[in-house]
Every structure is written in C-alpha cells, then in structure tokens.
Amino acid sequence: MFIPLYDGVELRYLKRPIATYVLLGLNVFVYLTIATGLIGSPQNVGLGLGMIPAVLFGTAVIDQAIAHVPTWATLITSLFVHGGFFHLAGNMLFLWVFGDNVEDAMGSLRFTLFYLLSGIAGCLLYAFLDPQSQAPLIGASGAISGVVVAYVIFYPRVHVFVLAFAWLPLSITALYIILAWITLQVGSALFSADQATGWWAHVGGLIAGAALTPLLRRPQVPLFGKRTA
Fold first, then answer.
1. What top-level class would CATH report for the domain 2-216?
2. Which end of the chain has fewer beta carbons closer than 10 Å to its terminal beta carbon, N or C?
3. What is the DSSP letter of 137?
C-alpha cells in the first residue's frame, strides 16, 4: 500500500538511536550469515531458529542436529531470521523510518525490551491460533508492528513521506497512513488466503505495542501528540 521513506522528526532526548542501529545491524548480519551458508543450509537454519508452534507446545519435536537453540529461545531468534532479501528489506525500512523516534520516546533499553516483547507477543498469538502448525514462523514483522503502532501513538500528526502504491511520492499524516496499514494487517489476518505470511503475528505485535507504549515511554513524553502544561 505504501513504502515509508522519511519523517523528518528530530530526536529530542538521544544523540543517536543506538538500539535501532544495533537491531538493524543484527538483522542484516543474521541474514547475510544464513544466506551465505556459514551456519548451514538456509532451510535447516530456518527450522532451527524459527518458532514452530507444534514444537513450542510439545506436540512435535525437531531434529536435534538442527535445533540451534532451546525451544523457548526461538520466540526471540525467529525475530532475526528472514526468508529473503525483500522480507528483510521491508521490515528494516520500517524500523529505519519509525524506530529512531520510538526509541527516542522510550530510551534505548526500554525500546529494545519493547521491540522484543512485541515480537514475542506476535509469535505467541500466531502459535496459540495454530498450535499444531509445524511450519516455522520467521521475521521481525511482529516487532515492527509494535514499533509502527507506538509511532502513531507518539506522533499521529507528523507528516511522513511515502511512496504510495510503491511509485507515487506523497507526504501524508502518520495517523492516516498507519491506520490504513493497521487495517491491512488485521484484514489480511481475518480474510487473506495467503498462508505464507504470519498475519496473526503482525496483529499480536500491534496489540502488544499498543499496550506497552504507555508503560515504557519516558514520563515526560506525551501520548497522541498532546503537550502537557
């Protein structure tokens, strides 16, 4: 629907969004490590690091030869594994545009916790709704969904420069474009026949992000763009 490019919101509390940079770098590093086969075949790495609902709930087991981490840890490792370049690029673009300002509003440590918790919530909702699935869930989309919803809670009136329909450059109020994006995620989760995308993980991240944003923000940072006297 749209590709975010730039928002122009200056940082108020941080000199640099270190956590955002680290998360970006870690995602890219993991992708390159897997793509080049340094830690095994991409398929086996996806199985070993991805979150598999049936394995998480103990109704299936995974070959220990490719089980790189404990089962519970896949709730985190799955957030850093991507299925291809465009999967990675889409998530990282959203993190690049929106993550720095959310980190600024929360602080680097709380933002990192927020990112991980949003991603874990996405994994858990996806797993609870399809507990017998043996397909690995991978990607940062749940965490990114949390970041996006936090951004609109903090900065609903900001104008974001986007490519609408991937080709038309526009400057649109964040509230409108993000509400449209959220509608797409929820609608796709409810009605899409696309089984290759973990839409419910996106929705789980949205819900967690909305719940956690007021709790993890800096006390002086207002919600919904409002300023206190």
1. mainly alpha
2. C
3. B
CA dist 95 → 3, 26, 62, 123, 226 (Å):
12, 12, 32, 18, 24
Please answer whether residues 27 and 82 qualify as being in contact, where contact means their C-beta atoms are separated by less than 8 angstroms. Answer: yes
- The answer on pLDDT for 78 being more than 80 is yes
DSSP β-ladder status, 168-173 and 2-6: unpaired
Q: Do residues 99 and 147 make contact, with C-beta atoms less than 8 angstroms apart? A: yes
Average of per-residue pLDDT across 186-201: 88
Inter-residue contact 136 to 46 (CB < 8 Å): yes
Note the pLDDT of residue 229: 34
Within 36-190, strands assigned E span: 159-164, 168-173
Least trusted range by pLDDT, from 87-91, 165-169, 197-201? 165-169
Domain borders along the chain are 2-216
State the Cα–Cα distance between residues 90 and 202, nearest whole angstrom: 14
| pLDDT tens-digit map of 45-66 | 889 999 999 999 999 999 888 8
pLDDT per position as a tens digit, 83-110: 999 999 999 999 999 999 999 999 999 9
Residues in the chain: 229
> Among 67, 91, 72, 71, which residue's Cα sits nearest to residue 80?
91
Q: How far apart are the first and last CA of the chain?
A: 38
